[in-house]
Amino acid sequence: MRGELLDRVKRVVIKVGSGVLVGGDGVDPAVIEALVADINGLIVQGYEVLLVSSGAVAIGKGDLGITGRPATIPLKQAAAAIGQSRLMRFYKDAFRSWNRRVAQILLTRDDLANRRRFLNARNTLMVLLEYGIVPIINENDTVVVDEIRFGDNDNLSALVTNLAEADLLVILSDVEGLYDSNPRGNPGARLISRVEQITPEIEEMAGGAGSDVGTGGMATKIEAAKQASLYGVSTLIVNGRKPEILTRLFAGEELGTWFLPAVDRLAARKHWIAFTKNCRGRLLVDEGARVALADRGKSLLPSGILGLEGHFERGDAVRLCDAEGREFARGIVNYSEAELTRIRGHNSQRIEELLGYKYGDEVIHRDNLVLKKPTAKSTARGKE
Asked: Which distant-in-sequence residues (6+ apart) come within 8 Å of 98 by Cβ?
């Protein structure tokens, strides 16, 4: 099964966490050199590789006398400013030994939430890959604020998978994969080798937060796998500290946990709406509108809107909720908050009369609408 899926992979996103790169005295250059040698082996085989790498904060915090996680965002930003150039130097030197070049890409959610900038970033990545240059991607921690944070590089790696139109996401962790309970506290914990669908039961297995050197625990990796799955891409979570892990993985060894892609994948634009574009508000709709949207594939008209919250402009994303406030979809609005305040509850034929102009009959067109699908019963398989 894995062999058949790997045969269809051409472009792969590899995410490496701080827990893999950092030892007792900071980032271990030998670990980076081994990782780069492994990645070079994949490139020689014809794979295109994009690397999402953590580690900047972990490298830079020592100069600030910080142990553990930085206590404030300014401290984290300062540590990232110190560490990012050093991290890139490690990678540049390691790839140079294989006669390969690298490029640094620093992103915030704002860069990807704007569709034009999203497409510009995609074009940049495509050119780099075309010229045989390895993109090394990280969150731009030196300038990011809460409103435009990805939150962790697991989430960023899933968004990069969509951005780069990749075929596979590999997350290198400091554990073997997903277990049915915490292996650090339960010696009898069982490794789950394959997950066909991510459900609340699977998410419950993921546990809590990350380590002192990273922000993402297993829960964030599962969320990343869910996002990639809905884009139609498999995710592998494996132990990045194992020797030649990528070589062995792509040779077909049954390592780590394989998350299968969703059968009903989202188109690239709808995936962007669902996971990348920030929601600026929410619309409450009546039951008739909810049924028309959720069950009949219709667009949202102003007559079905009961109320609205937030401050948003035309082209922003909003949450769609039923009368009780339960979110069931997300979409991009054709009218601003101020405009919708005036036209909500009215027939589309009155839009021009009420506003003096009209962008169209639909508040949200069905092509710009993504439904939240109910999660079905899960299937997870343990290590054979």
From this structure: 36, 37, 40
Predicted confidence at residue 144, as pLDDT, reads 60
Mean pLDDT of 301-313: 94
Q: Which of 143, 154, 24, 25 is nearest to 78 (CA)?
A: 143
Q: Tens digit of pLDDT for each residue in 250-296?
A: 998 999 999 998 877 777 778 778 877 788 899 999 999 999 999 99
How close are the terminal C-alpha atoms of the chain, in Å?
14
Cα separation of 343 and 337, whole Å?
Answer: 10
Q: List the one residue out of 54, 59, 47, 63 whose CA is nearest residue 23.
A: 59
- Packing angle of the helix pair 218-230, 153-163 (nearest 10 deg): 10
Cβ-contact 120, 128 below 8 angstroms? no
- The span from the CA of 134 to the CA of 375, in Å, is 37
- The two structure tokens encoding residue 330: 């997300």
Asked if 159 and 273 count as a contact pair (C-beta separation under 8 A), the reply is no
Question: How many Cβ atoms from other residues are within 10 Å of residue 239's Cβ?
Answer: 15
One DSSP character per residue, 238-302 reads EETTSTTHHHHHHTT---SEEEPPPSSPPPHHHHIIIIISPEEEEEEE-HHHHHHHHTT-PPB-G
pTM of the model: 0.76
Which of 269, 263, 271, 267 is CA-nearest to residue 198?
A: 263
The rounded distance, in Å, linking the Cα atoms of 1 and 5 is: 6
Domains located in the chain, CATH noted: 2-270 (3.40.1160.10), 278-371 (2.30.130.10)
Let me know: does 280 contact 59? Beta carbons within 8 Å.
no
